[in-house]
TrEMBL record:
Ranges of residues in domain ABC transmembrane type-1: 22-303
TM segment ranges: 23-44, 56-74, 160-178, 250-268, 274-293
Pfam families: ABC_membrane (PF00664), ABC_tran (PF00005)
Name the UniProt record assigns to this protein: ATP-binding cassette, subfamily B
Protein location: Cell membrane
UniProt keyword terms in alphabetical order: ATP-binding, Membrane, Nucleotide-binding, Transmembrane, Transmembrane helix, Transport
Source organism superkingdom: Bacteria
Molecular function via GO: ABC-type transporter activity; ATP binding; ATP hydrolysis activity; ATPase-coupled lipid transmembrane transporter activity
First-listed, main subcellular location of the protein, grouped into a coarse class: membrane
Keyword Ribosomal protein: no
């Protein structure tokens, strides 16, 4: 239990001070409450010794008022610190995780599914946020208050004090059994909850497939299963803890009863004055109230423990050198030297070397799954190579601070992702301080200004998550506008015009040509037009460069490229035939 307290304070980071203040005022609250005992003691002494006067009553009343005001003020301060400490702590962690994710290798997102990460920053963090304050403060407060009272009783009557110490130790023993049980069940419950979030996300994301294939009856079977799991573990925890919590309560109640009985016996034997006996009896009823409340909450301690581990696992994932050097490349030449790369155990890029001189256009072509996108991702350090080096301006890309590397690169992906925000914000993502004129100019060049202004809200139209409310071609044009606005010296186009209709594709080709002038361009393309004018064409098959050269050189040689041209020309021919 004490290990969890330490872990919690370490997790609190900058908010640790607030938590310490919250607990300090909770202890002061206990001390103020203890003044009620003093008021009772004053009245009891007056009654027992027959010295009760109006002055005695006023003194007791004064102490009670002081106690009441003290408890209100200290409780308020303690509560405020707990609550704000808790929300700030979780806010900082969530933002921290968001920031770190940008620097995590993409491999992390392969092995840690979306649902898992979502569950950690939502439900798991919420558990820390909601259960953390009452559990931590109640438990620490309960223990400190019981310790103070036990010292007080040991001081006045060591034998009665010893009864209280024994009761407290038995309570802690039962508590540790409860924690042992919780250590087994809490991780299972958390895993089940993460599984549920994952299943729901997958169900919603795959809704179009569910509808298209009439899978509605079977599609939510996984969700039903995960709901049943969550229910099973929640139930097991509640039911499993009942005997321990009950035993804790019984131990504390029996200890209180023992304090009362022993006090009376000591009085009857003449070992305790009547006044002291009555005071001990009152103490017997007071002493464990906070510890009892703490006992009811202590089953949550292990849950908080597991939740913290889960969040910290994500938070402490090694990131790509954010502390690297923020430096500008001397040139924009890109070079691969004997590069090999695997996704897990599967080798995708196999000992590849090539150079892309600054200001030239390199087209990467080849069969699907050959490794074209992977090569581009290695330039932008979405992944790091396993062997060899990728250099920019002669320096290993790993030597750059990630931000300073990425500011030189604009990427337009095959699968465009737009944020659930306005079109304006999505385009400005490429240059957050861009003016409206700059945004419109980029949108015009990317052939999306007209369709944007035709929307009722224009540039202020909010597009759904992932760009759900606009078409694939529109999304792609917005993402091209975004890249144009960024105006980086290196442009990577991964099938940039794949979803654009022929009429707009011509315009886009012109716009891309104008924008990419004097820049270093790497493009993955299946279309002949986009490949033909490249300075260099790399044909990638099964992770190797099997051909390289210009269009004229390669089209004369037998091989994948000549076949590619053959198929494309045939396809164009078919189109012309059909048009006639
Ligand atoms: N994140 C990933 N994790 C594991 N394997 C991956 C990942 N991304 C791609 N792959 C695998 O690596 C291989 C190369 O993929 P890549 O996307 O680089 O090929 P590509 O040539 O760009 O294909 P396409 O033309 O179809 O887009 C494929 O077999 C793919 O399944």
């Amino acid at each position: 239990m004490f290990g969890v307290f330490r872990k919690f304070f370490a997790f609190a980071g900058d908010q640790k001070g607030k938590w310490q203040k919250g607990i300090l005022f909770a202890v002061l609250h206990s001390i103020c409450e203890a003044f009620q005992l003093l008021a009772i003691a004053v009245v009891l002494r007056g009654m027992v010794e027959g010295s009760m006067t109006a002055g005695t009553a006023w003194t007791a009343l004064g102490i009670l008022v002081f106690s009441l005001l003290g408890t209100i003020v200290t409780r308020h301060i303690s509560h405020r610190n707990e609550i704000s400490g808790s929300y700030r702590m979780c806010e900082e962690k969530r933002i921290g995780i968001g920031d770190r994710m940008k620097y995590m290798p993409m491999g992390y997102f392969n092995s840690h599914s979306l649902g898992n990460i979502t569950a950690a920053v939502t439900t798991t963090m919420e558990e820390i946020e909601k259960l953390g304050p009452p559990t931590m403060v109640r438990t620490i407060h309960g223990l400190i208050r019981t310790a103070i009272m036990a010292v007080f009783l040991l001081f006045f009557n060591w034998r009665i004090g010893l009864i209280v110490v024994t009761g407290t130790l038995l309570f802690l023993g039962t508590n540790s059994l409860l924690h042992r049980k919780s250590r087994v069940l809490s991780p299972k419950r958390q895993a089940a909850q993460a599984g549920l979030v994952e299943a729901v996300l997958e169900y919603i994301q795959g809704m179009s497939v569910v509808k298209a294939f009439h899978l509605d009856k079977n599609a939510n079977k996984t969700i039903d299963k995960t709901i049943a799991e969550v229910e099973k573990y929640n139930y097991s925890m509640e039911i499993g803890f009942i005997p321990y919590v009950a035993l804790q309560q019984i131990i504390l109640r029996l200890t209180s009863v023992a304090v009362v009985i022993v006090s009376i016996l000591f009085y009857l034997n003449g070992q305790l004055e009547l006044f002291m006996c009555l005071l001990m009896i009152v103490c017997g009823f007071f002493i464990f109230t906070e510890l009892e409340a703490a006992g009811l909450m202590s089953s949550f301690i292990r849950l908080i423990d597991v939740s913290i581990d889960r969040v910290e696992n994500i938070h402490k994932t090694p990131v790509m050198d954010i502390d690297g050097n923020a430096q500008q490349p001397g040139s924009y030449d890109i070079a691969f030297q004997n590069v090999s790369f695997s996704y897990g155990d599967r080798r995708i890029i196999d000992n590849v070397s090539f150079t892309i001189p600054q200001g030239t256009t390199t087209a990467i072509v080849g069969p699907s799954g050959g490794g074209k996108t992977t090569l581009c991702n290695l330039i932008a350090r979405f992944w790091d190579v396993n062997e060899g080096t990728v250099t920019l301006g002669g320096k290993d890309v790993r030597a750059y601070k990630l931000d300073s590397l990425l500011q030189n690169i604009s990427m337009v992906f095959q699968n465009v992702y737009l944020f659930n925000d306005t079109i304006l914000s999505n385009i400005k993502f490429g240059k957050p301080d861009a003016t409206m004129d700059e945004v419109v100019a980029a949108a015009r060049k990317a052939c999306c200004h007209d369709f944007i202004t035709a929307l009722p809200q224009g540039y202020d139209t909010v597009i759904g998550e992932g760009g759900a409310t606009i078409s694939g071609g529109e999304k792609q044009r917005i993402s091209i506008a975004r890249a144009m606005l960024k105006d980086a010296p290196i442009v990577i186009l991964d099938e940039a015009t794949a979803n654009v209709d022929p009429e707009n594709e011509n315009k886009l080709q012109e716009a891309i040509a104008a924008l990419t002038k004097n820049k270093t361009i790497v493009m993955i393309a299946h279309r002949l037009k986009t490949v033909r004018n490249a300075d260099q064409i790399l044909v990638v098959d099964a992770g190797r460069i099997v051909q390289r050269g210009t269009h004229d050189e390669l089209s004369r040689k037998p091989g994948i490229y000549a076949d590619f041209i053959g198929v494309r020309e045939k396809a164009i021919g078919w189109k012309l035939e059909a048009a006639r």
